[in-house]
Amino acid sequence: MEHAPYGYRIENGQAVLDEKAAEQVRTLFRSYLSGDALTAAAQKAGIKAFHAGITRILQNARYLGDAYYPAIIDTDTFAAADAERVRRAEKLGRVWEPKEEKEVVFPASFRLREGMEQFDDPFMQAEYAYSLIEVEVLEDGC
Question: What is the rounded radius of gyration, in angstroms, for the C-alpha atoms of the chain?
């Protein structure tokens, strides 16, 4: 079972606002948007959390409200905080972009000579097995 996000509590099977914690979440968003760092904004809001926990609060779309959770913040505030988070990350060079991977073509099959020698040393056996390779045949038949 999942825990309710910070700012909510469960009563009779329904998520309801914990007004004190919800106000702390609103203060966190306001402080962050006013230019405070994550930890400074959390301290102003009275939230004790690590950097990653604060970021998760700022990225949690449940604070916008849905069928189960009542809204704590509005869409514009949430979008502005997300845009600010991305802007700060780009400014600090902390945006991860996946590198384009080169396609590597591996041989599909090999032609081997007949070999019957057995060695007790696994390294010598592997060296012998590789020495039996005559031709690597690629997928395109070359």
Answer: 29
Ordered structural domains, the chain, with CATH: 8-91 (3.90.1750.20), 101-142 (no CATH)
Residue 136 CA to residue 2 CA, distance in Å, equals 54
The pTM is what?
Answer: 0.66
Per residue of the chain (142 residues), what is the pLDDT tens digit? Answer: 458 999 999 999 899 999 999 999 999 999 999 999 999 999 999 999 999 999 999 999 999 999 999 999 999 999 999 999 999 999 988 877 778 888 877 766 777 778 888 999 999 999 998 888 877 665 555 5
**Burial class of residue 50 in the structure, from the number of CB atoms within 10 Å of its CB (0-12 exposed, 13-18 middle, 19+ buried):** exposed
